[in-house]
Write a structure and sequence with these properties.
One of its GO terms (molecular function) is GTP binding. One of its GO terms (biological process) is positive regulation of TORC1 signaling. Component of the GSE complex. Keywords: GTP-binding, Hydrolase, Membrane, Nucleotide-binding. By secondary structure, the chain is α/β, with parallel strands linked by helices. It has 2 domains: 174 residues, Rossmann fold, CATH 3.40.50; 182 residues, 2-Layer Sandwich (Beta-Lactamase). The chain has 9 helices and 12 strands. The strands form 2 sheets. It has a 6-stranded mixed beta sheet, sandwiched between helices. A 6-stranded antiparallel beta sheet has the order 8-7-12-11-10-9. Helix 2 crosses helix 3. The chain is globular, with a radius of gyration of 22 Å. The N terminus and C terminus are likely disordered. Bound molecules: guanosine-5'-triphosphate. Guanosine-5'-triphosphate binds next to helix 1.
């Protein structure tokens, strides 16, 4: 495998047209849960099945891109055995954008911390900009108080050890996350890891902020539908319960995806909307939304047309909504696919969803346009695909 000479947080296209993926190193001591993390996140392995995973004996590269194993950034995830060292890794640390270091929350921390410090020291000279993400893993094993206490202790010890080694290492960016394959904390943590690799993140966040303020939405996420990682969210804080709710809803809808696909394949049913969507700013709809209803929206935006002018097959964008009563009275969870691989999940006041449906849909079309424009700019700039 040919490796680039310089660190890069962006995938580039090599001369032969193949995409250089963003490299992420998955490190940690034996049995800390590295392979489980990779398998649960990207191969949909049920968490309980991780029990049967074989130990990793040599460095294994897993490729994820927009076509097959979809993720928003073409990734190359290096799953390493527990005994790997900087010298035996087989690639310079300058090749990696991010190191995800996994620590079993119930472990004796001495050994994992020494290994982490070894890699921080190894990376410092060659790639000081590398992101170190420490996953304090298997968190669900402990009670809430113990979990927080262990999390704090690990952070403290790592910081102390780094300061003992050299004051310079304090400059290395280290981020700590509590994770478990048994809940959505892993997806949330890995989403945050990816956010640092998305150049256009602030523009996407800006679009989501506008969507939220126009529709009175308290929270909106843009999810990658395959990996179930969120690409961006609006600027209000993420609370775990809302994130979990959105992940579960997305997972449930994805299980119905084959039904939508077969519809999408039947072209004559697709109606093109007018090329410029007309905003219905005061649109009110008296038709109440049925709870837990899934409704197909067939739309074709101007950017669906290739620039050559040749009519491309219209895309199918399903949408769905579910009332969150009684747990969240007066709130509706909505889902809108905005590109073939990205979906908007938003909480909306039920009154807005039911009474101002036109306004909501216009804002979805507007968001879709914005995301496609960003995608086009990204594509032109780096001639590579971050979003599909
Ligand atoms: N309770 C709990 N167990 C987990 C979690 N993640 C992984 N495990 C378990 O941890 C054990 C080791 O998982 P692996 O993914 O094989 O760990 P690894 O770090 O890849 O191991 P090596 O390849 O030997 O270095 C398995 O029995 C998993 O089921 C978690 O979040 N919670």
């Amino acid at each position: 495998m040919s490796l680039p000479d310089h660190p890069s947080t962006k995938p580039e296209v090599s001369k032969d047209g193949s995409v250089h993926r963003t490299k992420v190193l998955l490190l940690g001591t034996r049995r800390s849960g590295k392979t489980s993390i990779q398998q649960v996140l990207f191969n949909d392995l049920p968490p309980k099945q991780t029990f049967y995973l074989e130990p990793t004996m040599r460095v294994t590269q897993h490729l994820y891109d927009a076509k097959g194993n979809s993720t928003i950034i073409p990734l190359e995830l290096w799953d390493c055995p527990g005994n790997i060292t900087v010298d035996t890794l087989g690639a310079p640390l300058s090749d990696f954008s991010t190191v995800v270091f996994v620590v079993d929350i119930r472990d004796n921390y001495q050994q994992p911390i020494s290994k982490l410090v070894e890699f921080v020291a190894g990376a410092y000279d060659v790639n000081p900009g590398i992101n170190f993400e420490v996953f304090i893993h298997k968190a669900e094993k402990l009670q809430e108080d113990d979990k927080i206490e262990n999390f704090r202790q690990i952070q403290e010890r790592v910081t102390e050890r780094l300061a003992d080694e050299s004051p310079e290492y304090e400059q290395v960016a280290l981020n700590f996350h509590l994770t478990s394959v048994y809940d959505h904390s892993l997806q949330e943590a890995f989403s945050r890891v990816l956010h640092k690799l998305i150049d256009s993140l602030e523009f996407i966040e800006g679009l989501l902020n506008v969507f939220c303020s126009n529709t009175s939405s308290p929270k909106a996420f843009l999810f990658d539908t395959t990996s179930k990682l969120y690409v961006a969210t609006d600027s209000s804080p993420v609370d775990q319960a809302t994130h979990t709710l959105c992940c579960d809803y997305l997972r449930m809808l994805s299980s119905f995806a084959p039904l939508y696909k077969s519809n999408a394949a039947s072209e004559p049913r697709v109606h093109a909307l007018s090329p410029t969507p007309t905003p219905p700013p005061t649109a009110t709809s008296s038709s109440p939304a049925s709870t837990s209803s899934a409704r197909a929206l067939l739309s074709q935006s101007p950017s669906d047309e290739p620039s050559s002018g040749v009519a491309k097959k219209s895309l199918f964008y399903p949408s769905a909504a579910a009332s969150l009563s009684p747990s969240h009275p007066g709130t509706t969870l909505t889902y809108h696919l905005v590109t073939p691989h990205l979906a908007l999940l938003a909480l909306l006041p039920t009154t807005v969803y039911e009474m101002r449906k036109g306004l909501v849909e216009w804002n979805v079309v507007w968001l879709r346009e914005g995301i496609r424009e960003i995608w086009e700019v990204e594509k032109t700039r780096s001639t590579t695909t971050h979003f599909t």
